[in-house]
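Minutes, project check-in
Item: structure for the 208-residue chain
Input as provided by the requester:
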Amino acid sequence: MWRVRRRQRAIGYVRAGADAEEERATIAAACTRRGWQLVRVEEEGAGGRKPTHPGRTRALTALRAGEAQALVVARLDRLAGSAAEAGELVERAKREGWNLVALDLGLDLATPAGRRIAQAFTTVAGWERRLRSERARAALARSRAQGVSLGTRRRAPAETVAQIGKLRAQGKSLQAIADELNRFRYPTVRGGTKWWPSSVASVLKRVY
């Protein structure tokens, strides 16, 4: 669990646009009230349809490395595109030991009220993972029923297979899917966490 320390270091995150400067000011004011040092604000460039978010990746990498102890956003939807994705980020923050603060919702892992809000998002994320797993098992069952040989080689976990199928159905490229799997550390066929377009293609070919 994230613990309050003296003189916390925080990283802000905003999306480019008309509200970016206002959000920067909101984040800075919030850090000042808390007595935190705002190390920097990562700004995501325009073109949110891109599958990768380098600004967010830089922020998460810095937090994992211990360069800061909190990630602060004025609005949660700037950071996560869905409730499930927000839940995955909350789980990552807890696992890696940093705080996630969304000022619009009062989400703050350092406060009881903020943790209750976070729990709602992790519940949604857990539900979506179970749904992915069920869909993957159903897809495997259909393949077997159709006489498709899946071989005896190692297989990716059902949750990973389901996520690959979901992203492909959304029209994502092999590279975009690999980036998404790497960002949220989905396990590979061999138990690692590094995905390549070719390994994504292999899973799609065998299962879908």
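Outcome recorded: The first strand starts at residue 9 and ends at 15.
No further action items on this chain.
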